[in-house]
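May I ask for an example protein's residues together with how it folds?

___
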Amino acid sequence: MFATVKQIFNPKNRDIQKKILFTFAALFIFKLGTTITVPGVDIDKSGLGFLEIVNAMSGGAFEKASIFALGVMPYITASIAIQLLSMDIIPYLSELSKQGGVGRNKLNQITRIVGIILAFVQGYMYSFAYIKNGAPMDYMLYSLVLTAGTALVLWLGDQITQKGIGNGTSMIIMAGIITTLPAMFSSLWTELIINGNGFMGILTFVLFVVVFLGIIIGVIFEECAERRIPIQYANKSTSMLGKQNYIPFKLNSAGVMPVIFASAIISIPQIIASFVKNANFSLFITKYLNYETLTGFALYVVLIIIFAYIYTFMQLKPSELSENLNKSGGYIPGVRPGKETEEYVKKVLKRITIVGACFLALLASLPILFSKFSTLQTSITLSGTGLLIVVGVALETYKQLESQLVSRTYTKGRKGRRR
């Protein structure tokens, strides 16, 4: 890692330095936008509940009713929907997904259009939470502002992807989460040490920091952990290749998507209740489908585990993996090609997914449990899901940066040998 940092600051790598500076400039514009509040809204400071993950991914912009309040969430929702519909549900989308680069570009265009439409719909729905007793045009104007904000954020993400470092959308999400941390620790310091009760306040602050760092270490371990299935090829031997080939399966292949799915499912009844205005229905939602109730919390955890399984098997299709392995002449030692290979991969995925899903459910439950038993203000929380996103994006960006540096070194080495 230190060698990579040293290479980045090498004067010979000015193009990479420019990419990093461009990325920081784009992220600064994003952060600046999160501080601009839409005029005429009534900000509710009572807590966000099921919308906490939306607020975290937008860098606190949702809570502030900023022009970037929706962030990239509509685009993520659209991409998930298009991905699901591309699985032989809509033939046109299925064919596009099989057409290589051209098909992916068309799918990306469709996803963006759907994302903008969803941004308007979500903006209109959320406008009722911010604008009290407004005229129809007030709600329409708020929706248009949020839609324009999402379009600008997506454009910034594209610019980062093309001219900067890492995946633009992921970098914006990570930056949004990171920028909320200084304010959180500042509030924690003020509440526990400056306005606290001496030694106990200091001890609580230190304990919070230790737990926070422990969560980061746990997330890094979880993100790097993988199950490697060795493979061999009929026309090659391990000694000829010089190294062992294997198929790596991450402990948590689904990433943070199960949490987003579960949050969306839990939020639907609450959104309906805000529109219906029925006292009995609202009371039922509050008593049984709220995060702070036992039934709502249990349902949330179960949904995360279920979606972790579904999304993992959507991403890693054992049947296709077995078929592709067979076509390339590869096989798993001790396992027959075909159906047995497919069943073996399924068994491995089921075993590692239950561990990854339980860990993911624990991370998603931390803010809820913390707010339940803590007397600290709502802005201070242990957001395991947010840290999972930050660590995952940081690791992927580091790998991409490292591969670029290695590629440049290899290219320069070849040119030197030719001379």
Observations:
- The longest strand covers residues 226-233.
